[in-house]
Write a structure and sequence with these properties.
Radius of gyration: 25 Å
Number of helices: 14
CATH topology of the largest domain: Fic-like fold
Shape: globular
Order of helices and strands: HHHHHEEEEHHHHHHHEHEEEEH
CATH class of the largest domain: Mainly Alpha
Strand order of the largest sheet: 5-6-7-8-9
Distance between the termini: 39 Å
Strand content: 5-15%
CATH superfamily of the largest domain: Fido-like domain
């Protein structure tokens, strides 16, 4: 794979810059640690934002209104990472005891989780950190099928086999550390030895292996969760190469960050600064006073430039990923029900001009992406429409959507509303667009299931 070659070249470039300046290395590893803590936990449903995660780890500040368990998950995960960073330096061997100790650090104290009995009844199951599972933890797939992990009785033997396999592979003279780390991650997930924390432990162990060979850690970003799970599902179906490719692509990003840091250059990624500036702006504008800003042409133009234009661009870019499935597609941007532009490129400038020309601004912007004639054989000929609405009230603006493709028959539902001083964050924009993309994906999957059921 070309990505493996590129990763190895970047690793050689990084090695040539070693040893790194102690302060530069500490700064780089702090960024990796903060990103790693936030994204790995958020992938599993933790509610703390990046800023709240950073405040908790660096300053011990807890987030008001957020569950105590979510704070424990972050602090436990951070302790586990710090332990891993220490044992990498000591060149500690990977053992079953090591893996169980890692899970114990991660989960901290015993707790109960919701579960189902063999006959489908709801119950509670005790999670004991550091102990292998005593009950099955199989999962239902989107198709309603059960995906089976190793049974509790199989765990000791399978974990021993995994550790022995890893030790033998690691000592081979031609071993590729990236492939080894990715395969270990996947094989561990297939066993699923613990009641909880399996995904986080898998990612920590993968990074432990990479760091043993001098690579930086891989950060799987929560915004890319769907792609991460997609390549895992492909691996479940016997196609492991896309998963290795995916891990390598993310490792390349970490290598590039570390090389920039080693050279004394900025290690911030574009979204890092965006998050920090947006957080600062919200604090400055809303702390200590109640601000009443009313709808006007000037206010709408500010919201349009800072929030709606990025939303439109991201919406179009994401919708285009589905173009391949349809014979035709058409994006339309309405302002108060009117659309005078002809192409995607002039849509934004056209609506902005309409806001400028109006005395009080406009009342509604509507993003509509129409897909015409599904072009895959056997699914039937159907269309799909994806829509987002932005409405301007006297003091707030609202972003809303519709449940599915039947936009004319379904009423809109509110995603969020904001006062006019408040702009959409990049996270919120990505969340809105991902919601629409997932609705589209689920609809196609439902058609697939419907056709399959009919043909059975």
């Amino acid at each position: 794979m070309e990505t493996l070659t590129k990763a190895e070249q970047l690793k050689n470039e990084l090695d040539a810059l070693r040893p790194l300046n102690a302060e530069a290395e500490a700064r780089i590893m702090q960024k990796f640690r903060l990103d790693w803590n936030y994204h790995s936990n958020n992938l599993e449903g933790n509610s703390l934002t990046y800023g709240e995660t950073k405040a908790l780890i660096l300053f011990g500040i807890t987030a008001q209104g957020k569950p105590l368990k979510d704070h424990f998950e972050i602090t436990g995960h951070n302790e586990a990472i710090n332990w891993i960073l220490d044992v990498v330096k000591d060149k500690m061997s990977l053992t079953e005891t090591f893996v169980r100790q890692l899970n114990q650090l991660l989960l901290k104290e015993p707790y109960y989780v919701d579960a189902k009995t063999a006959d489908g009844k709801l119950t509670k199951r005790l999670v004991t950190p550091g102990k292998y599972k005593t009950e099955p933890n199989h999962v239902l797939t989107v198709t309603g099928e059960t995906f089976y992990f190793a049974t509790p009785e199989e765990i000791p033997a399978k974990m021993q086999e995994l550790i022995e396999w890893f030790r033998k592979e690691k000592e081979k003279p031609d071993v590729n550390p990236i492939i080894l780390a990715a395969l270990f991650h996947y094989r561990f997930i297939r066993i699923h030895p613990f009641d909880d924390g399996n995904g986080r432990v898998a990612r920590i162990l993968m990074n432990f292996i990479l760091m043993q060979f001098g690579y930086p850690p891989v950060i799987i970003k929560t915004e890319d969760k769907e792609n991460y799970y997609a390549v895992l599902r492909l691996a479940d179906a016997g196609e492991i190469e896309p998963f290795i490719e995916y891990i390598t692509e993310n490792l390349i990003r970490s290598l590039e960050i570390m090389i920039r840091g080693a050279k004394g250059e900025s290690i911030e990624e574009p979204e890092d600064l965006d998050k920090e500036v947006a957080l600062l702006e919200r604090k400055i504008r809303t702390t200590g006073r109640e601000t009443e800003i009313y709808r006007s042409r000037e206010v709408e133009l500010e919201v349009f430039d800072n929030s709606i234009e990025p939303l439109i661009s991201h919406f179009i870019k994401t919708c285009e990923k589905f173009d391949r499935f349809y014979t035709e597609n058409k994006f339309t941007l309405f302002a108060d029900g009117d659309s005078s532009h002809k192409t995607k490129n002039d849509a934004i400038s056209s609506v902005r001009e309409k806001i400028q020309q109006s005395e009080q601004g406009i009342f509604e912007i509507q993003l509509t992406y129409n897909y015409i004639a599904f072009n895959q054989v056997g699914y039937g000929n159907f269309n799909f429409t994806s829509q987002i609405f932005i409405t301007f009230d006297s003091r707030v603006y609202r972003v809303s959507s519709v449940p599915d493709h039947e936009t004319l028959e379904k009423s809109a539902f509110l995603i969020f509303q904001k006062i006019y001083l408040e702009q959409m964050s990049q996270e919120q924009i990505e969340k809105i667009v991902k919601l629409k993309a997932n609705q589209h994906k689920r609809y196609i999957e439902a058609r697939f299931e419907q056709i399959n059921n009919v043909t059975k």
